[in-house]
Automatic annotation (TrEMBL):
Name of the protein this chain belongs to: 3-hydroxyacyl-[acyl-carrier-protein] dehydratase FabZ
Organism (species): Planktothricoides sp. SpSt-374
Residue span of region Disordered: 1-26
InterPro entries from the UniProt entry: FabA_FabZ (IPR013114), FabZ (IPR010084), HotDog_dom_sf (IPR029069)
Principal EC category: lyase
Length: 172
């Protein structure tokens, strides 16, 4: 997983206010479609794994959606007759939601955030075609503007599918 940093002004987004505050009184400021996501993340098919951002609090958290369809190439071999989304791709999708947060941190120049580590990932249920993954990423820390830690979950129909923490390193 990697993501490009930007000044936060280049992505086209549609502002949507939530009636209820989320973290520490912050309100989700932005909903992003695929075009805005592609401006912030370098991933493209078949590794663009976030279809929409439905909640975003800059510098804090993001919630993204991944619509899982049988047409995705990994289902041809994983597993024939019983398609299951590979766990590593679920983790990648969760990290890409985290990348949305990292791509717009203030005072960090344009560059690339890449995976540096994964901790405590647990797979709780299979994800299959027809499921919609709801991935929530929360920024835990940024150190020396070069290292970041994000905690993330992925749910299907409100049931926990995957959870874990991800470390990222900034590459200029």
């Amino acid at each position: 997983m990697s993501t490009s940093a930007t000044d936060g002004n280049s992505a086209t987004t549609t502002a949507t206010q939530s009636p209820e505050p989320t973290t520490a009184g912050a309100t989700p400021a932005t909903v992003m479609g695929i075009e805005a996501i592609h401006e912030l993340l370098p991933h493209r098919y078949p590794f663009a794994l976030v279809d929409r951002i439905i909640e975003y609090v800059p510098g804090d958290r993001a919630v993204g959606l991944k619509n899982v369809t049988f047409n995705e190439p990994h289902f041809q071999g994983h597993f024939p007759g019983r398609p299951v989304m590979p766990g590593v791709l679920i983790v990648e999708a969760m990290a890409q939601v985290g990348g949305i947060i990292l791509s717009q941190l203030p005072d960090i120049p344009r560059g690339l955030w890449m995976f540096a580590g994964i901790d405590g990932v647990k797979f709780r249920r299979p994800v299959v075609p027809g499921d919609q993954l709801v991935m929530t990423a929360k920024l835990l820390s940024v150190k020396r503007k070069r290292f970041a830690k994000i905690e993330a979950t992925a749910t299907v129909d409100g049931e926990l599918a995957v959870e874990g923490s991800f470390m990222f390193g900034f590459v200029d």
